[in-house]
Amino acid sequence: MAFKLPALPKLSGRTIALLTAVAAVAVGAGAANTSKESPPAAGPPTAAPAADPPKVDEAVSNDATAAELKAAAALPQCRSARLVPVNRSWGIPMPSILGSTSTTCNLMYGDDPFRGSSRTGDPETAIQVLQRNLNFCYGTKLAVDGIYGTNTRTVIKMVQRKHHLVVDGIYGPKTRSAMNWRLYSMATRSWSRSCSSPL
Fold first, then answer.
1. Is 115 exposed, middle or buried (0-12, 13-18, 19+ CB in 10 A)?
2. What is this structure's pTM?
3. What pLDDT sits at residue 68?
4. Could you please report the per-residue DSSP string of 156-192?
5. Where are the beta strands (DSSP E) in the chain?
6. Alpha carbon 89 to chain centroid, angstroms
């Protein structure tokens, strides 16, 4: 299924350099977006019921999987949301690290909305921003409840399959950079009519 990209203004050299730097950070942190549940899938994706996570085969070595899991565990939970500028007119609302411009963080199954004993930040808003975007750009009907439960994890797995990523159900830097986002115009205070993947 093809997505129609919104007409965006041309990017300046500075904006292109900024986006290139963001992409480099995302690629560098890409190993962090892996499963604590199962190794990555290989071959064509298969349909699975929402309540039953899809089966994956063991195509990746245990050493590589262990390294990716360790990197994933090192990422902090997204505990805020911010508008990430794409150019002078458009930005993308997305989950971020509390008190930072960084979006190199993760959300995973069980974030309800906090993970662990720390109660700082607003992870509920981060999860809601993700859920709203998934509903608009991928046609899902998630409850925008700020809880990263079974349904949100299942939709993230579908997105990861669609974009040929490791299917682990964790929203992290690789998923963030590959997925489609609805843009927000800072100049007109309006939303794009379609989604694109400008990162």
1. middle
2. 0.66
3. 59
4. HHHHHHHTT----S-B-HHHHHHS-EEEEETTTTEEE
5. 80-85, 90-96, 181-185, 190-196
6. 22
